[in-house]
Amino acid sequence: MAIHKPIYIADRYRLKKKNIGGGNMSSIFLCEDIEAQNEEDTSVIVKMFNKPSIGDEDLQRQIFNREVESLDKLNHKNIVRILNKDFDEEFDAFFIVLEYIRGRNFKEAFDDICKYEYAQKLELIMQVVEGVEYLHKKNIVHRDLKPSNLMIDKDGTVKIIDFGISRLQDTFYNDYTLATFATKNYSSPEQMAGKNITYQSDIYSLGLIFYEIFTCSNITTRESMDVSMLPQGMQHIIVKMTKEEPNLRYSTISELKRDIEKERSLVIQEKYIYLGLTNNVKKRLLAFGYIEKEETELALKLLKKEYAGKCYMWPQKNQEKQFEGSFELYGQNFSSILKIDQRDNNRFTIVSISFIQPDRLMRQKEIAYEIPYGIKVGDGTMTHFKDEINAQILNEEVLNHEANFISQRNEDKYQKNIIVKWKNILELEKKQIDQEKSTLRYRNLKINERDASLEIEINIDMEYELNYNYEDMLQMTTKKNIHKSIDVGHMREFSDGHMIIDLIPQVDYTNIANSGEISVSMKMADIAIDRKRKALKSIQYKENVNPEISDIIFNPSSATSKDNLIFRKTDCKSKEIDQSKLISLEKALSADNMFLLQGPPGTGKTTFISELVYQILNGNPKYKGNPDAKILIASQSNVAVDHSLAKIKKLIPDIKMIHIGVLDKLAESSKEYTLDIFCREWTQKVIENCKEALVRYKKKIEIDESLQEKNSIIIEIENITNELEKLTGELEKVEVEIEKINILDSKWQFVNEKITTMKQMVTTKTDSVTEEQLSQIIDTFIDNLSGLNDKLAMVIEESIALSEQKMELQKHYIRINEELRIKEHEADEWKELLGVSSSEEYLQAKSDIQKLLKENKKKYAKYSRIEGLCKEWQKRVTQGDGLLQESIADSTLVGATCLGIASLSSAIDLKFDWVIVDEAGKATPSEILVPICLGRKVVLVGDHKQLPPVVDEALLKLQDKERMNISKEDLELSLFEYLEKNINDDCKNILNEQYRMNPVIGELISKLFYDNTLVSKTLMEEKTIPLKMYDGKPLVWLSTAARADRKEEMIVDSYRNTCEAKVIFEQLLKIDAELEKLKLKKETAVIAGYRGQRDRLTRLYESKFKTRFHNMTVEINTVDAFQGRETDIVFYSIVRSNDDGKLGFLKDVRRLNVAFSRARELLVVVGDHQCAKRKTSFYGQKNPFCELIQFINDSDDCLLKEV
After folding, report:
1. Could you give the CA distance from residue 511 to residue 526 in angstroms, rounded to a whole number?
2. Contact between residue 1084 and residue 1117 where contact means Cβ atoms under 8 Å apart
3. What is the pTM of this model?
4. What is the DSSP letter of 7?
5. Do 555 and 411 contact (CB within 8 A), yes or no?
């Protein structure tokens, strides 16, 4: 017996049964997913699309992925799930993988569906409507709704299949009309006619399906459809769904859903709950004047009316807010108290009536459970009827509703609190922007055209009052309007009241006032705020790419993971993967939507990021990668993005990547990957691919190129002829307008002649004129002038306006004639190429060519369509946003800052399979939400125990004024820290092996900041500088406690310490001398605790010490500037030295963590150790300096000495 070798699709899906469906362009297979884990059923459906015979394969893959990506994240109980998409080399076909539905489609189950009761059918079609409604809300038109595309699984759940596939087919196989693959029996009239397909087209198809379900008959012709036997409500629904004109149908599927719900509620109300009543009810109704006598019949009549409309129920609570078995029933006017009947626990009894204010009654109805049944009130009969609802069922429904309501209310309240807080922070930032423009007066503007700069004088007394930095865009007063400003450029330098500004290329410097106001332009800040607001709105209303991430942000515990991967180091490309990185990779790839990685200093976060990118794209034997995945690398700073991109490029040299950002702010290594350069290269590649594809296709179908060229010439001539006709018509219109103005000129000529005559009369020599003659002349002049007065005014007014118009028309006339001349010349040149000279020859050549083309119409039509597509494609990539869109779509990896990625046009559809955010702990929530909104899966990499989001103290002062109830802790709480504290353990991890610092420094960092969990993998001898002055110790505290000049100095809102500055430079000079002997070169960072100290150190360095260091580079800054960086040596200046032990923000352990952990080989702390340890705690938190000093004293590898 022959043994057949198993057939696999993409080496993963083992074929079980082939050709179980499909059509002209696709085949459907039942397969087994051999990589499925922890699944009861590994069966899947693979739908394979035959590859088009023409076109660039990479281009086809992009189109296929783009069309499917809008479908593969759909998540609805009534929509079949797309599990995967790929291309199989052996079958030479694209395919998608769908969940396997065990059940039957509507066509197969039709006889059984016909046996359903009316209410059951309504429930069935409601599932269909809800599924289609979900698709429409996702901007997906099904296009091919029919009974065989509607499945019922074994649990009775409807599943819609083949959604959007027709769109995919239409994209790939454009030489077929939609009608070719649409099922004609259920297609809308516009679909049959090949017209535009809309949501109403789906509604029409559903109308035909619903007609067959409710009439239990198959449609033979649409004219024979008869709904007269159906209930009135359903008649109306189906007739409206199947109107010939789309605009007469339901405008949306939601409108249809409302009508079906209304019909369903009428059917449900045929079922009812039965209520008994007690004598107490009759007494209460009588007491409040609702009935005239205490009679059961009167009470029943009133209650029947009271419960005739919609009624609601809610559990009644006692004073301790506990439920004791009673319910409140809200009718039209009052509340009834219900209890389970003591004689029959399947019924309720009304035990009392409560009369409450109408507004309170309305509020209670808004939260209560709407009873979906009718209500009957009786006198206590024990007989149960067929349509009566058991009270225990309603009891459970009401209690479930209450539980869901409370849960949702708590979630909404929690979400609202977070949203309000984040919005308030943005509002504060906006107010601060408006307040802090730092406006100054300037004068004596001088423009230097040679180097595109300007110089101005500014009046300020002290340099530190100037709050501009070199990245600020500055704006200055305009010359044309002193109340307006224009962006001019960035400050290059400022000294002695003179500022030089580098002008931006687009500025009109002639419009800058010689004197006026200069301030920081708020345009970019406003744009940043706007981007954050949009991101916040997207998360709040689930408008982001993956709505499930919104749920995780507001409820981190809802994050899930398959937790199904176990890797070995041999599964990784990088050789730098340790155990904690391995576990982190497993968790990141297993997480369904989000993963968080905490990376302490020196643990190799970028190594993890680069390996993660490799695994996403390439995978390993245990994880199937996706080479078509789109990945975004984002961070708060360009430096971090540059670092990650460089590491990834080193690991994956052939990866396609681009870096979005301002060229000047990018690292040199990243500039070759900028969007501008990428677009230029990519455009050229696309154009070449299109040309090659056309040549190949032309050769394949044996097109007569000369015939095609001649046809192209004829098309050009016809186009020019049409343009000539338009220009001739336009010329005629201009001539008519000019003629009208000439007529007016003749009127003016008449007036002019009259005036000339009158002028001559008046200017007659007066010496020969008698007094009588002069009087006669004046009278005649006045008579003539009066006669002309009205006409003269009107003509002059018209002449002034139309004289200008005449000039414009004459210019236009000349321009049209010139265009006519050029076009006629072009037409003659084309005719010359065609080999004809007269109109008769041209018409004959045109007839001959068209006859030959007609004989090969199909062949040339297909070629023309493909040629048109190629031209359109080339146009799209060379103009507008299409170029950016396609450039980003073609790249595998995109790098950008959190806000930089939002700088692209809103017309560009940005969606990424993975978004990886580095330094996530340093970004504000609204900032980090910008890239998060764009990803299907999100990985946040950061460390909340290092620097938090930067908090401007002015923002806190502003919030005190605005009273928004926002604390410093609120401002410093990053989204990363918030999520890390609350997300499931399966969706987070920490790297615990550091490779940067000397093990002594590493041990200090571990002890002070990471609860001794950080393990150093460095060797002492490799990470120690053998300096004799410190006895070769890697951790040193140089104390100034014994010096008389040790005290701090306060400068405005900062501090400085001259004593520490002197000590630091003395020590650096000694180190430099020892390095000379050791023949070593080292990098040194001098980190100041305060801005004032940084400025003091910088001035000393520039004026006295810069040229004295030969074996080390020295960089001086505050701790914020060094996040994400490392140097061989770190000097840390404490600055604070006082009798009270006040340390200010130095006690912030996160800032100390960053400062100390920058050192690879030597950490030197300079300051008053007695002051630093004077207080053991601050506001309940341990003083980290006490622990640091204790660590130094306890270790033989550390040194504390006074200087």
Report:
1. 24
2. no
3. 0.61
4. P
5. yes
Residue 1007: CA count within 13 A, CB half-sphere: 17
d(CA 618, CA 573): 10
Instruction: Please give the C-alpha separations between residue 62 and each of 579, 627, 885, 886, 893, in angstroms, as whole numbers.
Output: 36, 12, 12, 9, 15
β 516-520/1112-1118 pair status: unpaired
Q: Is the pLDDT of residue 777 over 70?
A: no
- The rounded distance, in Å, linking the Cα atoms of 634 and 901 is 8
Q: How many CB atoms lie within 10 A of CB 708?
A: 18
The pair of structure tokens assigned to 290 is 């609702």
pLDDT for 784: 61
Q: Say how far apart CA 708 and CA 694 lie, in whole Å.
A: 13
Q: What residue type is assigned to position 359 of the chain?
A: D
What single-letter amino acid sits at 838? Answer: S
Residue 541 to residues 35, 551, 978, Cα–Cα distance (Å): 36, 10, 20
Mark out the alpha helices in 983-1031 (DSSP H runs). Answer: 999-1009
Q: Which of 826, 896, 869, 834 is CA-nearest to residue 636?
A: 896
Choose the most confident range, by mean pLDDT, from 192-196, 282-286, 668-672: 282-286
User: Of 82-91, 225-234, 681-690, 1159-1168, where does mean pLDDT reach its minimum?
Assistant: 681-690
* Residue 784: both structure tokens together: 């003539």
Round to whole Å and give the CA distance between 488 and 721: 49
pLDDT band at residue 514 using 50, 70 and 90 as cut-offs: very high
Query: Within 13 Å and on the Cβ side, how many CA atoms surround 606?
Result: 20
DSSP letter string, 449-505: TTTTEEEEEE--SSGGG----TTPEEEEEBSS-TT-EEEEEEEEEEETTEEEEEEPT
Q: Is the dihedral of CA 917, 923, 924, 930 positive or negative?
A: negative
For residue 691, give the nearest of 41, 42, 38, 55 by alpha carbon. Answer: 55
- What six digits make up the tokens of 730? 């336009």
Using DSSP's 3-state secondary structure scheme, residue 585 falls into: helix
Query: Which residues have C-beta within 8 Å of that of residue 871, sequence separation ≥ 6?
Result: none
Q: Are 407 and 369 in contact (CB under 8 A)?
A: no
Name the residue with tokens 């109109």: 839
The DSSP element (H or E) to which 335 belongs, if any, is: strand 335-340
Alpha-carbon distance 1124 to 1116, whole Å? Answer: 16
Task: Please give the distance of CA 509 from its chain centroid, rounded to a whole number.
Answer: 37
The beta strand positions in 89-190, using DSSP E, are: 93-99, 103-105, 150-153, 158-160
For residue 337, the SS3 value is: strand
Query: Using one digit for the tens of pLDDT, what is the confidence trace for 589-638?
Result: 999 999 999 999 999 999 999 999 999 999 988 888 899 899 999 998 88
Q: How far apart are CA 473 and CA 418, in angstroms?
A: 33
Q: Hey, what are 815's tokens?
A: 């321009």
**How large is the average pLDDT for residues 388-395?**
90
Cβ contact 597:939 at 8 Å = yes
pLDDT for res 885 = 63
Q: Which residues lie across from 1163 on neighbouring strands? A: 1035, 1130
Contact status, residue 295 vs residue 279, Cβ threshold 8 Å: no
Q: Work out the average pLDDT over 1136-1158.
A: 88
- Can you name the residues that pair with 635 across neighbouring β-strands? 897, 918
Residue 369: pLDDT above 90? yes
Assess whether pLDDT exceeds 80 at residue 774: no
Strands 988-990 and 594-598: parallel
Burial 883-901 (b: 16+ CB within 10 A, else e): bbbbbbbbbbbbbbbbbbb
* More reliable by pLDDT, 437 or 1044: 1044
Instruction: Assign 3-class secondary structure to 285-299.
Output: HHHCCCCCCCCHHHH
834 vs 556: CA distance, rounded Å: 72
Neighbours of 24 (CB within 10 A): 10
Q: Report the candidate in 615, 688, 464, 624 with the shortest Cα–Cα distance to residue 34.
A: 624
